[in-house]
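Dear support,

I submitted the protein below through the web form. The confirmation email said the job was done, but the results page showed an empty box. After a refresh the structure appeared. I'm attaching both so you can tell me whether what I see now is the final result or a partial one.
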Amino acid sequence: MAPVFKPQLRKAPPMNKKIRIVIVAVIVLILVSAYVLTRGEATDALVLHGNVDIRQVHLPFAESERIAEVLVREGDEVTEGQVLARLDTARIEPRVRQAEARFNAQTQALLRLKNGTRPEDIAQAKAAVSAALAEAQNARSQYDRAVSISKSSNGRAVSEQDLDAARAALRMSEARLDAQRKALDLSLAGPRIEDIAQAQAQLEGARAELDLLQRQLKDAELISPTKAVVRNRLMEAGEYATPQRPVFALAVTSPKWVRAYAPETALGHLQTGQSASVIIDSFPDSPLKGSLGFISSVAEFTPKTVQTEELRTSLVYEVRVFVDDPEDRLKLGMPATVRFDAPAED
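What the results page shows now:
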């Protein structure tokens, strides 16, 4: 039997050990380079996670009274100075008019004192003095005549009773003359400084009372202090308002900021005024511009609502990134991602 021919495969020559070392080194170099590059790119920007925060205003009336009307609803945009609600003013308005009347009366009283005595009053006082003087002269003449007759007749023509009556009439007329002269002196001297000061004080008291009542009347209108959005309408017309019960809760539309928390290792990459991009899930491809406005100087524990890559129990520092939001995309409590640009090196 003829032998069977079996072809034999030739073994490949073993790879040179130096070539294998070179290939491994190249692969390691490529991996290290890729890691360094990706790590460098990752450190070019600091990314933090937080929530949108805005200021809220709770508006109560300054006075206690029944609400007459409520003019806005939840979701309405209001402007600074806009009237939001009104109180019933049926009882305050008459008090205001009464205070105005008292103030006007006191104003005229003070003006009369400051202007002094009128020329007509002075002329009248002089005429009264002249009349009292003539009366006193006549009484003197009557008395002197009675005395003379009594002496010439040895008391037989005029009785003692008539002499006493003439003497009393003379004294009364002289007293009236003295009173009229003093009244003329007072008219010429004008009002006392003390009287003017008293009238001035009474006028200031009337003005303070009027100002207070006018302030209360003005406070019957609830005014928006700024541009905002009505979040809650807490009371209705007919309810009794007090300074302790807010009627509205307003959300201030500007400024808005994202409250985030940065670890201590990131503080060296943050500085006030540093620009940032704010991204929300509703508009992932349209980041909003912002800037870092606040870095807390006190460390605290990370709130549970904040999602970070660090442990929740680690100490962090609160930062606030103020955002330009002209289209009003950001809402209170909305989660947001903040990406900081690398700070400029000194």
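Response: this is the final, complete result; the empty box was a page-load delay. Residues 34-43 have pLDDT under 50 and may be disordered.
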